[in-house]
């Protein structure tokens, strides 16, 4: 039996749609694997009642298939599904790392990224790498078709997850087909600012670079109270606020001293819309860990 813990992630960070992602110190999924004649999946933990155990429908099934590594796979969910915190990706990332080692396949962490992304294709229709890359490799990652670039950044973050469900598949439907050149120019500037901030461990630059006028406004409509939560987080000291992944979680970059106040402000703002929420005071963390 081999055990792997893979962290939640926050993708996009505003200006880096389908490219940027960060590993979060917490929460995380824990996956245990042992060899078997065919793949059998058991799911327990947060939101497990909404997660299929059929290998054709669970993200880890596609990973086992891609690695030709049939196994009994036990998933203990620490990350609720349809959260915007890379729940489906964390299981896939953990399974990729675990099965690669169990079957001695010899893939590097970077090579495991497109393999784990096959799981994402099962649930969201697209094999986007921006969640599995940081969940496997840790830090801040830039995932492109040419590979993954990683920066071991240290930035405090607050993630606030309301008790509503937004599926990534649905949230991808509202992504606009195109953007104006002025928006492209703005996003290039923001993405470059954010990347520089990651290299310098600078929450101001990271926060400034999280602005986006292309995808985020279209998706904000799916999250009741998004604008007031964002404003409350800024008022409490956040340096940048955006939708985490496809939502409904909202992510704020900040200084450590402001984390608690930002968390409380975001909770209160969701509460005003009638939604309960969970706050994670977290920071950029490491990738999947083998026990
Ligand atoms: N191992 C898994 N963990 C979480 N969700 C899974 C898993 N396998 C399949 N799913 C399905 O994926 C969907 C959640 O994925 P997604 O919408 O991308 O949310 P998230 O942003 O939390 O990853 C749900 O429909 C869930 O049933
Ligand atoms: N780039 C993807 C990221 C989805 O992240 P998730 O945590 O919501 O699965 C997107 O924005 O669609």
From TrEMBL:
Gene3D superfamilies: 3.30.230.10, GHMP kinase, C-terminal domain. One of its GO terms (molecular function) is ATP binding. Coiled coil: none annotated. ATP binds at residues 80-90. Keywords: Amino-acid biosynthesis, ATP-binding, Cytoplasm, Kinase, Nucleotide-binding, Threonine biosynthesis, Transferase. Belongs to the GHMP kinase family. Homoserine kinase subfamily. NCBIfam families: PRK01212.1-4 (NF002288), thrB (TIGR00191). This is Homoserine kinase.
